[in-house]
Amino acid sequence: MKSQDVAFWKEAINDEMESIMGNKTWKLVDLPPKSKPIGCKWILKKKMKVDGTIDKFKARLVAKGFTQKEGLDYFDIYAPVARTATIRTLIALASIYCLEIHQMDVKRLFLMES
């Protein structure tokens, strides 16, 4: 926080914290016996425009998941990523049936407990 842009970074961090709190993405629970808490850290990044000027300051709070041990801290892995073959099939079908494809950018995505 010794940057000349400290005010912008604080605003980005506050925006991220408001989003986390507003979406109720976590709840406070007791730590299971013989478990260690997983740390977290801030990822700060400047998003640039095409002309090289700063578009926005982006802050994300991320868990240090690399400290987890399979079978102890987690059991299943899920990554919602589409395969290239799936995307190509979608584009091919849209072309065959003269359909439009719209792209959407999601600012924040939170998995909700059901």
TrEMBL record:
It comes from the Eukaryota. InterPro entries: RVT_2. This is Reverse transcriptase Ty1/copia-type domain-containing protein. Residues 23-111 form the Reverse transcriptase Ty1/copia-type domain.
